[in-house]
Amino acid sequence: MFEFITDEEERGQVGIGTLIVFIAMVLVAAIAAGVLINTAGFLQSKSQETGQQSSKQVSNRLQEVVTVGQVSGSEVTAVNVTVTQAPGAGEIDLENATINWIGPSGTETLTHNSSGADGWEFTTVAVKNTDDSNTVLNDADDRFNINFDLGASNGPGNLQEGQSVTIKINTMAGATTSIRFTVPESLGQKTAVEL
């Protein structure tokens, strides 16, 4: 006749509902944790890559040893810049470098003569080379001359006494070395002069 619902049946239904909500919360938390872990891994790899690139831009630089001008009459007709690796630098290929020449007749952007580009170019000659590479500085003892023929076709022309030039050598890693030199006020009877 009369049907009685006991407290145990109601508690069972409430318990199943609570269990379903609990499982749903655990699944949502697991998915959120997976997304956070993936994002953290991605950000870590990007920051390492950025750090390595920044380090190369700072460390893979050239260092000037000496700059010499070839003199004819009262003009400098060619400039030779001897360079080596800066402390802590890795391998630097001068064939892939670009040089900005900022002088009295304007600004020029030069590439290595092996690049095949039109216009004024620079050449390199090994002074001291620990291996057979023609353009690569890969040892702290390596020394290369970067040569600028000022009278070449498309060149800026010879430098006069007292004129100043700034060159900026940009390596493939993005590091820039800036070198500024001034032609002495009197060249006299010299055939070469340190700039």
From TrEMBL:
Single GO term (MF): structural molecule activity
Compartment annotation: Archaeal flagellum
Membrane-traversing stretches: 12-37
InterPro entries recorded: Flagellin/pilin_N_arc, Flagellin_arc-type
Pfam families: Flagellin_arch-type
Primary localization: other
GO cellular component terms attached to this protein's record: archaeal-type flagellum
GO biological processes: archaeal or bacterial-type flagellum-dependent cell motility
UniProt function note: Flagellin is the subunit protein which polymerizes to form the filaments of archaeal flagella.
Designated name of the protein: Flagellin
